[in-house]
């Protein structure tokens, strides 16, 4: 699990932040000006990548926060079961078990591949590893 620290004011919508051990994608950022005796604040609205929960966070503008490092790779599908998908990383040949994705379009494509074993050998996925977890980001066929 690779995490780095960065200043909160450098983050923008579309980037990622760690909150309570969960990697989240930032949907919006809002900066407020400092008051007479206070410091400027940064308000972030983000959505958890794995749990899909919406979060609203507020930080002083000079704060340092954790940002997950994303390792992207391509993999071949070994087999698909009802509760997990087994893939093989095409660079390291490591075998990884992944839970089914939440995205309906990805689920539809994976069910098509599961129904036709001939498609499985011609299919690959793009996966992301972040915060010690792995998720399927894209399914494509050669």
Overview of this protein structure:
By secondary structure, this protein is mostly beta strands. It has two domains: 3-68, SH3 type barrels (Roll), CATH 2.30.30; 71-141, Nucleic acid-binding proteins (OB fold (Dihydrolipoamide Acetyltransferase, E2P)). It is 12% helix and 54% strand. It is built from two helices and eleven strands; from the N terminus they run βββββββββααββ. The protein has helices spanning 104-115, 117-121; strands at residues 3-7, 16-19, 22-32, 41-48, 54-60, 64-68, 71-80, 85-89, 95-98, 123-130, 133-141. A five-stranded antiparallel beta sheet has the order 9-8-7-10-11. Strands 2-3-4-5 form a four-stranded antiparallel beta sheet, with no helix packed on it. A two-stranded antiparallel sheet has the order 1-6. Strand 2 and strand 3 form a beta hairpin. The radius of gyration is 19 Å and the shape is elongated. The chain starts with a strand and ends with a strand. The mean pLDDT is 89.
Number of helices: 2
Over all CA atoms, what is the radius of gyration? Answer: 19 Å
Strands across the major sheet, in which order?
9-8-7-10-11
Quote the CATH topology of the largest domain: OB fold (Dihydrolipoamide Acetyltransferase, E2P)
- Shape verdict: elongated
Order of helices and strands: EEEEEEEEEHHEE
Mean pLDDT: 89
Number of domains: 2
The helix fraction, in percent, is: 10-25%
Number of strands: 11
CATH architecture of the largest domain: Beta Barrel
**How much of the polypeptide forms β-strand, as a percent range?**
over 45%
- How far apart are the termini? 31 Å
- Overall SS class: mainly beta
Largest sheet: 5 strands, antiparallel
Q: Which consecutive residue ranges, at least 5 long each, have pLDDT under 50?
A: none
In CATH terms, the superfamily of the largest domain is Nucleic acid-binding proteins
User: CATH class of the largest domain, anyone?
Assistant: Mainly Beta
């Amino acid at each position: 699990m690779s995490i780095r620290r960065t200043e909160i004011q450098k983050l923008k919508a579309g980037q990622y932040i760690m909150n309570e051990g969960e990697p989240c994608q930032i949907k919006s950022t809002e900066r407020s000006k400092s008051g007479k005796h206070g410091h400027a604040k940064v308000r972030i609205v983000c959505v958890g990548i794995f749990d899909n929960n919406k979060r609203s966070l507020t930080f002083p503008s000079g704060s340092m926060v954790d940002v997950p490092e994303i390792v992207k790779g391509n993999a071949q599908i070994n087999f698909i079961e009802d509760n997990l998908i087994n893939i093989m990383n095409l660079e390291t040949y490591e075998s990884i078990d992944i839970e089914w994705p939440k995205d309906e379009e990805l689920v539809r494509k994976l069910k098509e591949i599961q129904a036709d074993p001939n498609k499985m050998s011609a299919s690959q996925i793009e996966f992301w590893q972040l915060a010690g977890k792995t998720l399927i980001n894209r399914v494509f066929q050669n």
